[in-house]
Design brief:
Elements lengths: L16 H20 L3 E2 L5 E3 H4 L4 H6 L3 E3 L6 H15 L8 E5 L4 H11 L7 E10 L11 E10 L5 H17 L3 E7 H10 L6 H8 L2 H15 L4 H11 L5 H12 L3 H16 L7 E3 L13 E7 L8 E5 L14 E7 H10 L13 E3 L4 H16 L4 E3 L6 H10 L4 E4 L2 H6 L1 E6 L5 E5 L9
Parallel strand pairs: 1-5, 7-8, 12-13, 12-14
Antiparallel strand pairs: 2-4, 3-4, 5-6, 6-11, 7-9, 9-10, 10-11, 14-15, 15-16
Helix pairs in contact: 1-6, 1-13, 7-12, 8-9, 11-12
């Protein structure tokens, strides 16, 4: 038989048991915080209709959407249509004869579609959280994958800034529980809208935000070059450079922004919203940073925007989100305001792994391994194992009678902390020898008392 070259698609990964346990630790921690604030779980399909996704993420985002080929393209009736459609796709145009569906790019647009379809049955404000994989046709690199999980929380049906306050606290609470030191960056798209107006009009908004969003990656000079390529003149670029140069404390930044943009209505409103947010989050001043370079280049944001960076590690953002006051309007259901945040689970995992932040107990599944030392001994061991399982204590019976050394090695490789040994002597006395494999300490204990032992 010819050797098969077995591999994974680039940008995807397998997750073994130890990794899954760590990921579940992250997800369960975040879920518990969501539930504390009244959020409800939701799931949507992996694929959406093309028109649901396209045009919602800006020019750059649309390029990263994974499209799904239609079924039956090899049918003779469809071949000519598919060929013609393929030529259009090469030109950057979509054609339903080739593809009508795509893998979801994020969880926010599918959520907006869900709200638009179910608005008549939802209780507003509707608070949901969602933990599912998303797909992006991006170039894989450290912390950037083609398939990855998002973990979102959104509130729709409310204009109250209390929602932004609670979402900011959810970020701070969840990362504190995970042991990850963070900086929570905030800005407001209304301020960016005012910047666009100052530079000649709202039609400049997308060009400006897409370019600014790349500042961390390509630097100021490259951003200026891109702005020039996008049709802005030198005077407009100077205004943007002045805006990007705003620094100091949060209060000093706000004062400088008022001088530059405070005479424009949208700028004034955005600055006021940031001031309100900061005043309601006075218990967390050291972790909150106003960052006027934060743009989040997605078209649907309209107000407060968030980004989370981990301290002490080189990694992109590990969370982000913001307000999108008319997202459902994209689906013909206007006037349902919303705001949401997302946790980058894969990047959070990488950060915690690099900084060794996972608790020791996360590495362990099975608590007790019952040794298999013969037919009668294993029967008693199986009964004892069932009693522990009834108490919620994970345990295993080694699958076959074998040398003790082999069974000890099995326990060591699986990080099982306890070995329960029932040999011929223990069988006569209805006891077991319980060995703590971390310390080497051994205890003789009645089988009947095992379920009450403090493992």
């Amino acid at each position: 038989m010819a050797k098969v070259n077995v591999s994974l698609p680039q940008g995807t990964r397998d997750f073994g048991p130890e990794v899954v346990r760590k990921r579940n630790y992250i997800l369960n921690t975040i879920r518990n915080v969501f539930e504390l604030y009244g959020f409800q779980p939701l799931e949507t399909p992996a694929m959406e209709n093309m028109e649901t996704l396209m045009g919602k993420y800006g020019e750059e985002g649309d390029k990263l959407i994974f499209k799904i080929l239609n079924n039956g393209l090899n049918d003779p009736k469809n071949i000519d249509k598919a060929k013609a459609a393929f030529e259009k796709v090469i030109e950057g145009k979509n054609d339903k004869n080739l593809t009508e569906r795509a893998l979801r790019y994020d969880l926010t647009i599918p959520f907006a579609r869900y709200v638009a379809m179910n608005q008549g049955t939802l209780t507003f404000p509707f608070k949901r959280y969602q933990v599912q994989p998303v797909w992006r046709a991006d170039r894989p690199q450290k912390g950037r994958y083609r398939e990855f999980y998002q973990c979102d929380a959104d509130v729709v049906g409310s204009n109250s800034l209390l929602n932004e306050v609670e979402l900011a606290i959810i970020y701070l609470t969840a990362f504190k529980k995970l042991g990850v030191a963070i900086e929570l960056k905030i800005n407001n798209r209304k301020i960016l809208s005012a910047l666009a107006e100052r530079c000649g009009g709202s039609d400049k908004m997308t060009d400006i935000t897409v370019a600014i969003d790349k500042l961390d990656k390509i630097g100021l000079e490259k951003v200026k070059e891109e702005l020039l390529q996008r049709g802005l003149n030198n005077e407009q670029i100077e205004i943007i450079e002045s805006y990007l140069s705003i620094d100091g404390s949060n209060e000093e930044k706000l004062n400088k922004a008022k001088q530059l943009l405070g005479n424009i209505d949208s700028g004034k409103k955005g600055i006021e919203e940031l001031e309100t947010l900061l005043s309601l989050l006075t218990a967390h001043p050291s972790q909150l940073t106003i960052d006027f370079t934060l743009a989040r280049g997605l078209n649907y944001y309209t107000g407060t925007i968030f980004e989370v960076k981990a301290n002490n590690v080189q990694m992109g953002s590990i969370g982000g989100g913001g307000r999108y006051d008319d997202l459902t309007g994209l689906f013909g259901v206007p006037n349902i305001p919303g705001v949401g945040i997302s946790f980058g689970v894969d990047r959070i995992y990488d950060v915690m792994e690099e900084l060794k932040l996972f608790p020791e107990e996360v590495h362990t599944g099975t608590q007790v391994l019952f040794f298999n030392l013969g037919e009668n001994e294993s029967r008693l061991a199986f009964t004892a194992a069932q009693q522990l399982r009834a108490k919620g204590i994970p345990c295993e019976l080694y699958h076959e009678a074998g040398k003790m050394d082999k069974q000890f090695k099995y326990a060591e490789k699986k990080n099982i902390p306890y070995a329960a040994i029932i040999g011929s002597n223990e069988l006569k006395e209805n006891i077991c020898t319980l060995k703590d494999l971390r310390t080497g300490e051994q205890t003789k204990i009645l089988i009947a008392s095992l379920p009450d032992y403090s493992f």
